[in-house]
Design goal:
- By secondary structure, the protein is α+β, with helices and mostly antiparallel strands.
- The chain has one domain.
- It has four helices and 15 strands.
- The protein has helices at 2-19, 45-49, 80-90, 195-224, and strands at 26-29, 32-35, 66-67, 70-71, 75-77, 101-104, 129-131, 134-140, 144-145, 148-153, 156-159, 165-168, 172-174, 183-184, 186-189.
- Strands 6, 7, 8, 11, 12 and 14 form a six-stranded mixed beta sheet that branches. The protein has a four-stranded antiparallel beta sheet with strand order 1-2-15-5, with no helix packed on it.
- The two termini are 23 Å apart.
Length: 225
C-alpha cells in the first residue's frame, strides 16, 4: 500500500498540469498557461520591466523573482506577436497583420453578453476594466514602439455589448503610465499531455501494481505454509 501511494503521487506530480488543465488564476491555451492580466493591474511597463532577467542566457522576455506575490519562475512577458497569435486563436476573422485594429460582431473571442456583466470574457480572462456594458481585457506586452522608445504596446480586447467587439495589438502607451484597468500579458510554457493518454497511463500503472501485489501476497502465503 505504501508503494501504491508513492507511485500515485509521482503520477499526479508528473501529469498534474494535464489532468487539471487550468486553475482560477490562469488560463491554459495550447502550450501556454496565461496569468490573468488583472493580477498586474495598475503596474506601469517600467515597474514590470524591473523583473526582466537580463542575463545573457535567459530567453527573451524571461521574468524572475516575484510580482505582486506571484512567483515568476519560468514566466515569460509576452510580446506583441504573442498577443497577435492569441487573438487569432479565437477570431472567426483573424487579424491579418499586427497593426490591425479588428472589429468583429458576435466574435468567438469576445462573445456578446446581453443583460448583465459576466465574470469572465475573452475565453476565460477576467476583464481588467468594466465601464457600464463595456468590458475590456488590456495589458502591457514587453514590445516597445520602435519609433518612440518611451512607449510600449498594450494589446486589448473589448466587448461593447451588442456592438462590434474590437481587438487591437497596436495600442501603445507611455511606459511610465499606471492605470488600474491595464494589467500585463504574462505566460508560462507548459507541456500539453492528452488527457485520455494520461488516464491510460495511470490505469496501466494501477493494474501493474495490482498484479505485483497479488504475486507478493501469494509468495507470503506460500512461505507461511
Amino acid at each position: 500500500m505504501k508503494y501504491m501511494r508513492a507511485i500515485l503521487l509521482a503520477i499526479l506530480m508528473t501529469h498534474g498540469p494535464a489532468l487539471f488543465y487550468a486553475s482560477a488564476a490562469t488560463v491554459t491555451i495550447g502550450a501556454k498557461e496565461w496569468f490573468q492580466p488583472t493580477a498586474f493591474g495598475g503596474l506601469s511597463w517600467n515597474a514590470i520591466a524591473t523583473s526582466l532577467d537580463n542575463s545573457p542566457t535567459a530567453p527573451e522576455g524571461q521574468l524572475t523573482g516575484f510580482i505582486r506575490g506571484l512567483d515568476m519562475t519560468g514566466a515569460i512577458w509576452a510580446s506583441q506577436e504573442d498577443l497577435f497569435h492569441l487573438i487569432n486563436h479565437f477570431a472567426t476573422t483573424p487579424l491579418t497583420a499586427i497593426s490591425d485594429f479588428k472589429n468583429q460582431g458576435d466574435s468567438t473571442w469576445m462573445p456578446s453578453h446581453a443583460g448583465g456583466t459576466p465574470s469572465t470574457v475573452f475565453s476565460g480572462f477576467l476583464p481588467t476594466d468594466v465601464d457600464d456594458s463595456r468590458l475590456t481585457v488590456s495589458g502591457w506586452v514587453r514590445t516597445s514602439n520602435p519609433g518612440f522608445s518611451s512607449y510600449a504596446y498594450s494589446p486589448q480586447v473589448t466587448n461593447d455589448d451588442g456592438d462590434a467587439d474590437t481587438a487591437s495589438t497596436w495600442s501603445f502607451v507611455t511606459k511610465g503610465t499606471t492605470f488600474a484597468g491595464r494589467g500585463a500579458w504574462i505566460y508560462r510554457s507548459v507541456a500539453v499531455v492528452p488527457i485520455p493518454g494520461s488516464f491510460m497511463l495511470m490505469g496501466s500503472g494501477l493494474l501493474g501494481l495490482f498484479i505485483l501485489r497479488k504475486k507478493f501476497s501469494r509468495k507470503v502465503e506460500s512461505a507461511q505454509d
